[in-house]
Amino acid sequence: MLEALVCPQTRAPLSFDAERMELVSKAAHLAYPIRNGIPVMLVDEARPLE
């Protein structure tokens, strides 16, 4: 299923961070949370990467 998800801001592929339960967009430098098993694909909810 991960292959079907892309960053809503850049349309770039995402990688899964199992430790933090996030989907990471390296292109946008954002991490989208996964809550209750559901990815929250909203830019406003994403955590900026350092």
Count of alpha/pi helices = 0
Q: What general outline do the C-alpha atoms trace?
A: globular
Strand segment tally: 5
Instruction: Provide mean pLDDT, rounded.
Output: 95
So what's the oligomer here? single chain
Query: How would you sum up the major sheet?
Result: 5 strands, antiparallel
First-residue to last-residue Cα separation? 27 Å
Helix content: under 10%
One letter per element, helices H and strands E, the order comes to: EEEEE
| Low-confidence parts | none
Write the layout of secondary structure elements.
Elements: E1 15-17, E2 22-25, E3 30-35, E4 38-39, E5 47-48
Antiparallel strand pairs: 1-2, 2-3, 3-4, 3-5
Word description of this protein:
This protein is an all-beta fold and 50 residues long. It is 0% helix and 34% strand. The protein has strands spanning 15-17, 22-25, 30-35, 38-39, 47-48. Strands 1, 2, 3, 4 and 5 form a five-stranded antiparallel β-sheet that branches. Strand 2 (22-25) and strand 3 (30-35) form a beta hairpin. The mean pLDDT is 95.
